[in-house]
């Protein structure tokens, strides 16, 4: 039996759901078997990343993701997204594989709407739309920010991104009420000053964390498992969406620092999932 066919057997088999690819990367023992990417006609213009072995995950929280440069190519952060999905998340990515053009914040809204509409039903019976994170890299992070007033969103992940001006920081970041984590590439990251300014502007009492690692703007997304960004991200989403206290220790117990992140944090004791 081929690896691709074996992966397909564990995937939702609803009408029109199509297997796009299967990763052959070796994942950690604690992760599920190989993650996969799907298209579904009920969510046109998007790509779905999810663990191949769905039976190992119940429930399956949701991440809506915007790509760097607001690229419509959903494979832009492929290794990174496969790693995050492998730890028990369904990721709804704006765009399709190798597509041209740009995405919009409205496409992320479409992802959220789709998750809410389909969670707990049919092929998607394991999906839990009560736990949704909006996240993205660079321009995709700004798309995630556009969801700040959506009460359906439980957390925000801002990767190599930040508001362009002090006025936009004051206008947008003041609305943040849910946990928000920033993953930045150090002073050589073009988003460094913007992201740090946003971190400082997060309202008092909101759980927030910022980490910098000296990668510049492009991070380590293309490395196997997404490199240190993949490690940090899967711990973040496991904590805020799954309530995994072992993942929380990555941020509270020195794991991030051991991986090279320079960090600051506030109110992490207020995170509950």
Automatic annotation (TrEMBL):
Residues 1-17 form the signal peptide. It comes from the Eukaryota. Gene3D superfamilies: alpha/beta hydrolase. InterPro entries: AB_hydrolase_fold. Keywords: Signal. PANTHER family: CARBOXYLESTERASE TYPE B DOMAIN-CONTAINING PROTEIN, CHLOROPHYLLASE-2, CHLOROPLASTIC. This is Alpha/beta-hydrolase. It comes from Zasmidium cellare.
